């Protein structure tokens, strides 16, 4: 019999279902816990379900914030942030990393995601957007579009390989 103290007893699918449970008595959470902990388990009390849902939401928010921080770091490093914040003569200055913002296109950029967390976990997409809004500001963040990639991770690896050979 599994317990919540066992690492990995709740899968990403479980976490998503718990976070997105909006039923008044958290019945989806009760079903997920019963499934994850074993069919013989009695239903977890409502207060326990609330705590589990709160912890799952904190884990998902932390993950979204960490991903948004990584995206922000890449956007700063490539000069996109500086180029999109700059106006007029400021647009051709250099970033903190010494890169010229002339190379960076201003305007919109797209970040492609591959996988079930982004495609099947709607609340996570909202958390990611909120975290990026917080880190970049809503005006700049609105220029970053999220897209689901249907090409798989092999396509991403090919793009990285081509980019590495051209630099």
UniProtKB/TrEMBL annotation:
Pfam family, one: Hexokinase_2
Enzymatic reactions: a D-hexose + ATP = a D-hexose 6-phosphate + ADP + H(+)
InterPro entries: ATPase_NBD, Hexokinase, Hexokinase_C
Keywords: ATP-binding, Glycolysis, Kinase, Nucleotide-binding, Transferase
GO cellular component: cytosol; mitochondrion
E.C. number(s) listed in UniProt: 2.7.1.-
GO process annotations (BP): glucose metabolic process; glycolytic process; intracellular glucose homeostasis
Gene Ontology MF terms in the entry: ATP binding; D-glucose binding; fructokinase activity; glucokinase activity
Signal peptide: none
Hexokinase C-terminal domain ranges (all copies): 4-162
Pathway: Carbohydrate degradation; glycolysis; D-glyceraldehyde 3-phosphate and glycerone phosphate from D-glucose: step 1/4; Carbohydrate metabolism; hexose metabolism
Family according to the record: Belongs to the hexokinase family.
Annotated protein name in UniProt: Phosphotransferase
Organism lineage: Eukaryota, Viridiplantae, Chlorophyta, core chlorophytes, Chlorophyceae
């Amino acid at each position: 019999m599994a317990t919540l103290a066992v690492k990995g007893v709740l899968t990403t699918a479980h976490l998503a279902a718990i976070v997105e449970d909006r039923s008044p008595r958290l019945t989806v959470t009760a079903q997920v816990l019963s499934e994850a902990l074993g069919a013989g388990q009695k239903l977890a009390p409502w207060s326990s379900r609330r705590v589990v849902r709160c912890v799952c939401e904190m884990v998902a928010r932390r993950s979204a914030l960490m991903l948004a921080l990584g995206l922000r770091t890449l956007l700063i490093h490539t000069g996109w942030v500086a180029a999109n914040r700059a106006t007029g003569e400021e647009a051709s200055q250099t970033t903190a990393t010494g890169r010229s913002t002339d190379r960076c296109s201003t305007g919109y950029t797209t970040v492609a995601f591959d996988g079930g967390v982004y495609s099947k976990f709607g609340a996570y997409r909202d958390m990611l957007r909120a975290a990026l809004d917080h880190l970049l500001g809503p005006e700049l963040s609105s220029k970053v579009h999220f897209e689901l990639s249907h090409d798989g991770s092999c396509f991403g690896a090919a793009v990285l390989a081509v980019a590495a050979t051209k630099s």
